[in-house]
């Protein structure tokens, strides 16, 4: 009997999750930041499926998640040349940002991760934007 309720709970929870428009969109369709108590799984299959619905504009960095140690920003850099991307990634690395590309992400998408003890979300976003502008000029 316990297993029956467990299976029923898992089916109900799973169905409810999949029916949402996106975990990164609010009721009115605006992009919102997901707050995670422990650790955000930025490369999980569910997350990758959900970020395809976000579609950041060229050069836009969207603060999509915050967990107990980091802020996660998403961007689409597909419009950059390979040299510009490499320059941008090097600037991110030199400025203590972590970045993830490929790993199942949509083509051109990049996760940029700022550690909470080094940046505020606003400061991280401003620095990332400045590094991006320096990379394309």
Automatic annotation (TrEMBL):
It comes from the Bacteria. This is DUF4174 domain-containing protein. It comes from Flavobacterium cheonanense.
């Amino acid at each position: 009997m316990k297993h029956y309720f467990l299976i029923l709970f898992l089916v109900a929870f799973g169905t409810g999750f999949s029916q949402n428009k996106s975990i990164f969109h609010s009721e009115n369709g605006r992009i919102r930041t997901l707050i995670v108590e422990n650790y955000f799984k930025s490369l999980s299959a569910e997350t990758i499926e959900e970020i395809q619905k976000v579609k950041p504009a060229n050069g836009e960095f969207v603060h999509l998640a915050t967990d107990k140690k980091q802020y996660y920003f998403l961007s689409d850099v597909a419009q950059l040349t390979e040299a510009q991307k490499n320059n941008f990634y090097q600037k991110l690395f030199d400025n203590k940002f972590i970045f993830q590309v490929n790993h199942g992400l949509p083509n051109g998408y990049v996760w940029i991760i700022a550690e909470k003890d080094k940046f505020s979300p606003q400061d991280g976003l401003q620095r990332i934007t400045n590094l991006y502008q320096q990379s394309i000029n």
